[in-house]
Design a protein that fits this description.
Layout: H1 4-18, H2 23-30, H3 34-43, H4 54-70, H5 80-83, H6 89-106, H7 115-118, H8 121-139, H9 147-162, H10 165-199
Helix pairs in contact: 1-6, 2-3, 3-4, 3-9, 4-8, 8-9, 8-10, 9-10
Length: 200
């Protein structure tokens, strides 16, 4: 089985590796599917070391698109300075390698299921809300935690595009677990100075 998500994303990254492609170009070509596809494209770099300045641009774009989904929009929009963003060609090649690793095991797990859930219009809003929340968690300054919410966003984007209602339900549980884990870590960092003083 070949996932539409991985096929489309690989085609975009291969094109970007040869000729610079803006996010606006991608959105114009993919329409409604562009929400999940571009969100996946935006968060995939968080699994890799990124050049300075990338994280704020990619995170902002992901948050904007997710909020639009949460509000029920079906046509994605990004402001001009973000929509003109291009992935450097060398970075696109690195993303392609990472994508092949991720999609290899996902193809064994993801398929259209629980369509009553997956095709419910309200689920579109819920998926957008979850991805927006996970993006906020992704952008928090908690060291070494980027891959955790990134994985949640990526799986939810794939579940949305592939109409996998079972994976969506798993992602909702995963979102709650991620929220709890990062909450504990944030609390630990906040309490760390007090604990160090007490130990001293």
């Amino acid at each position: 089985m070949n996932l539409k998500f991985s096929q489309d994303l690989e085609a975009l990254l291969q094109r970007s590796a040869q000729t610079p492609v803006t996010l606006a170009d991608v959105l114009a070509e993919t329409s409604e599917r562009g929400f999940s596809l571009v969100i996946g494209l935006l968060v995939l770099p968080f699994l890799l070391p990124m050049p300075p300045g990338f994280s704020s641009i990619l995170g902002s774009a992901c948050l904007l698109l997710s909020l639009q989904m949460a509000l029920g929009r079906r046509s994605p929009w990004l402001p001009g300075h973000i929509s003109r963003f291009r992935f450097p060609q060398a970075f696109s090649v690195s993303l392609l390698v990472q994508l092949k690793r991720v999609s290899g095991w996902l193809e064994k797990l993801v398929r259209p299921r629980f369509l009553t859930i997956a095709e419910n219009p309200i689920i579109w809003n819920i998926n957008g809300l979850c991805m927006a929340w996970l993006t906020i968690l992704l952008m928090l300054p908690i060291p070494f935690t980027n891959p955790i919410p990134t994985l949640g966003i990526l799986l939810l984007a794939i579940a949305t595009l592939e109409a996998d209602g079972l994976l969506m339900c798993i992602c909702y549980v995963f979102t709650a677990l991620i929220t709890a884990l990062l909450g504990v870590l944030a609390y630990g960092l906040w309490q760390a100075p007090t604990l160090l003083q007490a130990l001293g």
